[in-house]
Amino acid sequence: MTTDVPPAPADLAAALAAGRSGAPAAGPRRAYRNGEDRLLGGVAAGLADHLAVPVLHVRLAFVVAAAVGGFGVLAYAGLWLFLPVADHLEEHAPGLEAATRQGRRPRSRRRLHDVGPLVAWGAIAVGVVVLVQGVLGTSVLFWPMLLGALGLAVLWRQADEAQRERWVDSTGRVSLGRAVLGSGGAAAYARLTAGTGLLLVALLLFALRAGAYGSLAVARDVVVAGVLGVAGLALVVGPWLFRLTGDLSEERSARVRSQERADVAAHLHDSVLQTLALIQKHAGDPRTVATLARAQERDLRSWLFADPPAADASVASALRAAAAEVEDAHGVPVEVVVVGDAPATDRTRALVLAAREAMTNAARHSGADRVDVYAECAPASTEVFVRDRGRGFDEAAVPEDRLGVRGSIRDRVRRHGGTAEVRTAPGEGTEVRLLVHDAVPAEGAS
Amino acid sequence: MTTRRVVVVDDHAMFRTGVKAELAEHADRVEVVGEAADVDAAVAVVTALQPDVVLLDVHLPGGGGVEVMRRVAARLPGTRFLALSVSDAAEDVIGTVRAGARGYVTKTITGPELVDAVERVAGGDAVFSPRLAGFVLDAFAGTIEVAQIDSDLDRLTEREREVMRLIARGYAYKEVAATLFISVKTVETHVSSVLRKLQLSSRHELSRWASDRRLL
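Above: the input entities. Below: the structure tokens describing the complete assembly.
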């Protein structure tokens, strides 16, 4: 057996970390619009999340950029168009999602519902209008442009909401009508009419004013107006078409996910029924009942509330699995707390096996009513503590032929370059401390 | 010793009954004076009774335990909240503590442990289960840019980290004190200081957990 273990790929560790923090794991990190914390489209909030800076700074940057040359508006619109919404993709454990749907967790509140910011934004908008009027005098183009921009904004926003309606009619097919109007209703029609109306009025105003300057200009301006109209239409329809494709594939993967979930739910309900049946049969045996209930609880809890497992083979998942086995075999609860996580290597596998042995010893011999396991995965080393408050023992008095502590724990860890310490005394419980260092010192990895 | 007045807030009637039965065995130390099953009822009951401690379920119809604290906590400085939940999700636990709970325990806690926790919270101390200590170590892991202003709140001292690690290893406060050769009072001071940091820090990990639940 070679001791030359290849270094843990840094990207795997990164993926693990990302998986734990709830971000979509695979691929490069990408930015999303934050649909829950938004003033307009959630672009600033999404960027703030992505860049890990306060959202206020991002918003201020956009406002400044918009005021200076209009670039901020362009950038915002572009990002709004191209960044997908995060809450479509965000996936919580089913228990949390259900609790959120039933209003048993704090609900996200739209900030626009606060009147304060609205007044402030209104004041800023009026201020900008007055300022532009003052600086440029009465510009010919200003009011038509403002109206046009408003119309586009309304339509654009409409596209965003329609998107949430999943684009499909009751038969499950994509319907253009639903795509444009969302679930319908007076509000949707009113918004659409208002948007289109504003656009038309803008064009009309433009043509009328331009016409007043002379017949030569009229022809050119009408052409320009026509082009603008077409461009406006493209702007209005473009986002819908663009998003349509993205939404469809998202929809499909969501359906696959929910089917998987349904299967798991069926399996779990089944196992609960089995457990209940077993509990009835063993009603006279409190220890068995407790073990059964505990195993079932662990099963349900991990499905309902735990993050989806980061990888098949990480230190945390291996330790939890080992603890579960010990719990089932000996009927003593084993509480596992893990800080950090790391991909499994030969060394950490040996560590987990040793820890499992320590848990088994504690569960079998200590007489304690629970075992605490704590693991800390640092970049260069992994440390595990297994502790019970049981009767403890005198290590010197353990006969030579009892291999548990000596063979399975100490020697196993030592073979992999680690250390094992046992702290115990009769009547004072036992704590086993296991430590292994990473095979390759992390020189390039930072 | 004074009897602590407790209100139990949980939407599962069976669980409320169980907690009341368990606490009734320690009637000399704690007394359940009221109960509620959702946010509105909880706000009404807690405001009317002004208990010492509210045992608060994290998931509660009407916006969760966080909503109860948001509506009541400022008006009742004498009432302290202890979160009690079956959910182990880090964002719920951290979110609830950041909203003002002085501790977090899971529903599998035994009766005597719960009574201890109630008394500790009523006395103004914090209650950290091994799991919460683990979350805290995770949240405060890694380094933070030195330039960060007010960074005291954003990192744990070496001593606080040691205390958290021992609690995560399953040590009771008394055992932590014995291991580190300090007094139990000092351990409580460290834990309260960690609680304060947990509630006030603007570390990105913590703000993310909080902003997920719209607490900022």
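Note for the figure: Chain B touches chain A at residues 11, 58-64, 66-67, 86-89, 91-92, 95, 99, 108, 130-131, 133-134, 137-138, 141, 165, 168-171, 204-205, 208, 211, 213-215 (CB under 8 Å).
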